[in-house]
Every structure is written in C-alpha cells, then in structure tokens.
Amino acid sequence: MILPLLLSPNKIAITVTPLKLLQCDHVQEFKQYGVPLIAINHDTPHNKTLWNCVSAGAFHNLLVAPEQFFPKADWFFFVDEAHFIIMAGEPKAGEKLAFRAAYGNLADVLVQLPLGVPVALFSATLPQLMLHHAVIPMVDSIKNLSNLDFLVSVPFHPPMSYPPKSIIFIDHKLSTAAVARYLNTRLPEAVRCVFKFRHLHFSMSTEHNKMVFDEFRKSNGLVQGVVATSGATGG
C-alpha cells in the first residue's frame, strides 16, 4: 500500500481495514516513509482544525472501517437550481466543454447514495431546453390514463423496487378515484397488500384525508401514492 502513494504523492488513498489495532500499525509504518495519514474511527476527535486538514488533503491515506461506507440513511439529498444540470452541465451547441461539467455528473453521485436516501431536485425556472428532459409528452388528452403508466412499470413484480412515494395532483375531484384505481390495477394483486394508491379531495371528510396522509407519511405505510386535488392539501 505504501509504494503507490510514494509513486503518486499528489493522490489520496482510502484504505479499508477491519481493526483499530491494524490502523495504528499502519499509521506508524506509513510515517516511517513520510506518508501523512489518519485513522478515522470513533476515537477520532471532533476537532474543527483537524477535519479542515482532512478536507484540504493534508493526509494522503485515510484509514476507515467498511461500516463507514454504509451509514444510516437519515438525511436528504437536494439539488437547488436543478436546471443547471442541463443548462450548465452539458456543452452548448457548437461547444466541446460544458460551462460547469460537474453539474452534468451529478447522476454519478446519486448511484453512490445509500439506499433509501430521498432525492429532490428544485427549480423555479424551466427553460425551453429543459422541456425535452423534464417533461413527458402527453398522448391524446389528460383523460388518457396511459399517460401515467411511467409511475408503475409493467410487468411489475418483486424483487423490483416499489415505485417511489408520489403525490399526483388532479384538477377534478371525480378523476382522483379513477386515476388511483387505474394505477392500482397495474400492480399485481399480491403487491397491493403492501403498496397502494389512495385518492382524496376536499369534499371528503377531514378524518379520511388525515388518515390517508398519516399512512402516506409512514416509511412502511400501506399508502405509497396519493392522488389528490390541490384543495385537499390545505388545512
């Protein structure tokens, strides 16, 4: 492990090791060859100066345990001004390089997130160029419910991942039931026991709407999809 770092002094290595005792041995051994390294574990002090040094690349070898790559997914991943993914992350016509190529590579970050981390992209701007990437063309009219087929892949069967939690807004309250019923028919009968779309609107009782939303908020709740009118979300 020492030789690659001696030959490439500008690179940083992450070394996975199972025991703290081995980390201590590595620290002493690498220091003999002038390679700065740090063992990162529960004993590492929460010192701002130290972590600033780690972030700045002061240590060429970071010793970690394998469990540190799989933390509990108790956080979110947000992307603000998400239109930059296309507008700045991809080269414009006639140009070879993107203005901010890192934006175009954010998909590489998503696949490395722990399973279960909610991801949300935000933008108040939808330039014409974005329509090609962010909008699914509608077939016929809104009455053609097959326009919603992208929400539930068919054939759908375990061990495929369940569709993500979704809130679908419909203008007309009578259409909410039809949409929920249509999406549920795309799920196998056995899957509907653990996953279901429910509808609600402002004419339904407050108790019913609260029950649906409470079940929807649960991480393992039966309601994973809500079809609602915008008025049902108020109050």
Condensed summary:
The chain is of the alpha/beta class and 235 residues long.
If you had to describe this structure to a student in words, what would you say it looks like?
The chain has a three-stranded parallel beta sheet, with helices on one face. Strands 6-8-7 form a three-stranded parallel beta sheet, sandwiched between helices. The protein has a two-stranded parallel ribbon with strand order 4-5. The longest helix has 13 residues, at 20-32. The chain contains nine helices and eight strands. It has helices at 2-7, 20-32, 48-56, 84-87, 101-104, 106-110, 128-134, 173-185, 206-217; strands at residues 13-16, 37-39, 61-64, 77-79, 119-121, 166-169, 196-200, 223-228. The mean pLDDT is 84. Strand 7, helix 9 and strand 8 (223-228) form a beta-alpha-beta unit. By secondary structure, the chain is of the alpha/beta class. The protein is elongated, with a radius of gyration of 25 Å. The chain is 31% helix and 14% strand.
